[in-house]
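Bench notes, afternoon.
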Amino acid sequence: MRIHSPDPISRLDEAIAALKVVDATCTPPTYMIGDLQWIGAVLGFRPNSRGYLRHMATKAVNSAGDVLECGSGLSTLLLAVTAGRQGHHVHTFEHDASCHQKLLGLIERYQLTNVTVHHAPIRSYGTFDWYDIPSTCDSESFELVICDGPARHLTDSGRYGLFPIMQNRLDPHCRVIMDDSNRSLDRHVIGRWRKEHKIEVQSFGRFLQFAEIVCV
């Protein structure tokens, strides 16, 4: 199914409808991912590479449990469709109130009942900053984490807080998909995680711009 409507919301309507009819055991085809990527840019969401989104969708399709997403976008809708058809819930942390409200409207529009977007401002944990975990995030274990936040302009500690704050709620074999892992700050974060936790790291993309981190 190709997208033909000129209006971005109408195009998004068609894109979500197309995603919902893909076989539940299959990763959406590349052109569908590309359509979603283009629409997201037009609607003002933070851009992600097509390879990153496709890798994320593949892991969501094959996830054995609930999904945590750090930082929202149209990736949230993609996760809701792909992980939702496996019977898993997606919890998304978003620090920005306006983005949070925008996503809530889209989730209601597409009747995606298996995703919760939490407004989670950035707070200090002493030596680093990370999301203020909302009490409504009630999943006890996450098998997959999509790590695309906090953004580097919000905190000098980057995404470091994921493991120290959420480690008791990460599955022992959790997979973390981190975007922009080739940036100096995020390379430093991964280095700290390597020293403090038993993980394996593999980079992907033409410029090694995203990584998959597996707890071992």
